[in-house]
Design a protein that fits this description.
This protein is α+β, with helices and mostly antiparallel strands. Helices cover 20% and strands 45% of the residues. Strands 4, 5, 7, 9, 10 and 11 form a six-stranded antiparallel sheet that branches. The radius of gyration is 17 Å and the shape is elongated.
Length: 165
């Protein structure tokens, strides 16, 4: 391994360790609207491509991590223009379950406590629509108590994903 990849790996492990250390505190503290045990991080900026369907596709992945002590069910994700409130797409139910891949044997749109998943996003726009410079994502989630009973549903703060278009 090169020195730069070792340095990157070291920084990544430090961030993971810090998040893991914070997980018990987050699980014990009372939940607020803006506090969530769901960590959502885009892997790379969206890649705009013109498809055979004459629509512009913004293709990207978002890594999801449940750092809390309870399962998190994804109810709805809205993809918005970061500079306004124009909603490009809304994903829920079967459409959401279809694009989510969980680690381990998990299925459906729910992350188990401590679980990881990847959303394979494909936001489509008409060919003549200008590609936004940045996107934001609004997650509606349901946090379950350890017994599996729904505890609360809330909206997260939007996650911004910037790219040059």
């Amino acid at each position: 391994m090169t020195q730069s990849s070792l340095a990157f790996t070291g920084r990544l492990l430090t961030v993971v360790a810090m998040l893991a250390a914070a997980a018990p505190v987050l699980a014990e503290s009372p939940a607020l609207e803006i506090v969530s045990a769901l960590v959502a991080t885009p892997i790379a900026p969206p890649n705009p491509v013109l498809g055979a369907d004459a629509r512009r596709h913004l293709v990207y992945e978002i890594v999801l991590w449940d750092i809390g002590g309870s399962a998190i069910a994804l109810k709805k994700i809205e993809v918005l223009d970061a500079n306004g409130d124009a909603i490009f797409t809304t994903l829920e139910d079967e459409a959401l379950a279809k694009i989510l891949r969980l680690t381990g044997a998990g299925k459906g749109p729910a992350l188990p406590a401590g679980g990881l998943g990847v959303l394979f996003m494909d936001v489509t726009l008409a060919e003549d629509v200008m590609v936004p410079r940045a996107l934001k994502h609004r997650f509606q989630i349901a946090v379950s108590k350890p017994e599996g009973k729904p505890d609360r549903t809330r909206l997260s703060r939007p996650l911004k994903s910037r790219f040059e278009g």
